[in-house]
Structures are given as C-alpha cells and as structure tokens.
C-alpha cells in the first residue's frame, strides 16, 4: 500500500506540471497573437499612470534629438511662424508624430499643477512632455492652475507664475516662454512674468484683425504681451490658416521689416471642442509650411526670443 501511495503521488505531481506548462504556453501564444494583431498588452505602460506626474523626478529627461530652442542658424529669414498650443491636453501628443517628419517645431504651454493625475486624465504626463521635447517641442509656462491672473493678489500671482516656472525647470526643461491663461493679463501680470524670469509672455489676438497688422513685429512692441492671430477654432479652414501666413509674408515684403506670425491652437481632434483643429487639417497646414520659400521659417517662441530670426 505504501508503494502504491508513493506512485500515485508522483503521477499527480507530473499531471500538475504538465497542466502548468500548457497554461504558460497558451498564454505566451495568446500574447503573440495580440501583438501581431496590433493590440496593446494589458500593462501599466498601455496608458499614462498617475505616478508619472508626481512633483519629483528621479532622473533628468533625455536630451532632445531636435532642440526647439537652439536650431542651427539660417540666413535670409524675413517671416517666422510660431505654432503655439495651450493647456497641455493629451490630444496634443499628436505633435510627437506630426512634427518630426516635417522637421518643424512648436511651443506647448502647460500648467504644472494640472498634469496627468487623478482628476486630470485629459492632460499629459511628464513622460509625454519628455517625448515631445525630444521631437522639437518647446515647453512653456501657463501658470500652475490656470486661474484668471488679473483677479489675484501680487503674492498669489507669484505663486501661479513663478512657482510654475520653478516646477517646470525642476523637471529638467528649459523654460523661457509664458502664456497668460485665457489671455487675461494687465500691467501687473506682465511685471510679475518678467520678474519670474520669463523672457516673453503671450496673449491671444491683436494681429490679423480689422485695423491690425497681419503679424507681430520683430522686435515685438512688447515682449510680455506677444500678439497672435485669433485662436484656431473647429470651423477654421486650412485655407484660412494659410492666408494668415501669406498675409504675414506680404507684411514683411511691404514694410521691409521682419514679420512674426504666432498662431494659437488648443485641441487636436475631430470636433471635440470649440477650439480644436483636426489632425488632418493640422497635417495639411504643416505640409504646406514645410515647403514655404526659404525666407519663411517655423520657429518656437523661445527660439525667436533667444536668437531672433535665424
């Protein structure tokens, strides 16, 4: 009886082992089929995690492959187009694939207090910003929490503007550009932006309107109130955006002075928001910009402020 008992135990052990091997092999085959079909494995890397936007970073971000702030110099530029995107919403991550093939750059103004975490799942994470900086995007400040700055005390203004810049720099980004949330600014907010170490600050509007110039001048009238064309909206046609650029080029030619067209975007999506541009229309604009004459260039805001038209 004892011998029979020992034999039965060995058989049961081998049966369990065979079942375990079958399960492991089936799981591996299923994973290969999912990957081959273009499906994403169910892991923590399939979507940003809340931990990726914590207010600390154990290692610095990687060095940019295309540094939006420090491009090689180029002579003969008379018109510069700056593509600016506000709020750091997640659909703007499309820039990571739209910009590199066309060798173009952009400026992304983000709120350091509203990156991806519980409650702000439509925002980017630090890892997303790292990817964008690698591929030609300048990161700029947009305040910590996106309030109406004109309603704040001077001390609260410093917390929103200075702390925002300090946090973004602490994460390893070179921060020289600021945009006022909802374009709300006055003399006090301008003074605080300057005192916090920003080299420029942007509003929305002021050019390409009745009785307005077609583009910002360079040097600008006020570095802490950079003017833009009206924000691109859901109904803005590609031809309208192209015409803004043509008008800026005409201004440069007629006046003999450099013209700086700063364009303002928010969401990159198909009609998800009033202030949105479809990825298809944005790609069409970028294709067109990439083939403008050598006298027109696309540059990040910070690059223009740091180096001028080059």
Could you characterize the architecture of this molecule?
There is one protein chain. This protein has 310 residues and is of the alpha/beta class. Helices cover 36% and strands 15% of the residues. The chain has helices at residues 2-36, 95-98, 126-134, 154-170, 187-195, 238-255, 279-290, 301-307, and strands spanning 79-86, 106-110, 137-141, 177-179, 200-206, 216-217, 226-228, 259-265, 267-268, 276-277, 296-298. The strands form three sheets. Strands 1, 2, 3, 6, 8 and 11 form a six-stranded mixed beta sheet that branches. Strands 4-5-7 form a three-stranded parallel beta sheet. A two-stranded parallel ribbon has the order 9-10. Helix 4 runs parallel beside helix 5. Residues 1-55 have low confidence and may be disordered.
Q: Layout of SSEs?
A:
Blueprint: H1 2-36, E1 79-86, H2 95-98, E2 106-110, H3 126-134, E3 137-141, H4 154-170, E4 177-179, H5 187-195, E5 200-206, E6 216-217, E7 226-228, H6 238-255, E8 259-265, E9 267-268, E10 276-277, H7 279-290, E11 296-298, H8 301-307
Parallel strand pairs: 1-2, 1-8, 1-11, 2-3, 4-5, 5-7, 9-10
Antiparallel strand pairs: 6-8
Concise structural overview:
The chain is of the alpha/beta class. It has helices at about 1-35, 95-100, 125-135, 155-170, 185-195, 240-255, 280-290, 300-305, and strands at about 80-85, 105-110, 135-140, 175-180, 200-205, 215, 225-230, 260-265, 265-270, 275, 295-300. β4 (about 175-180), α5 (about 185-195) and β5 (about 200-205) form a beta-alpha-beta unit.
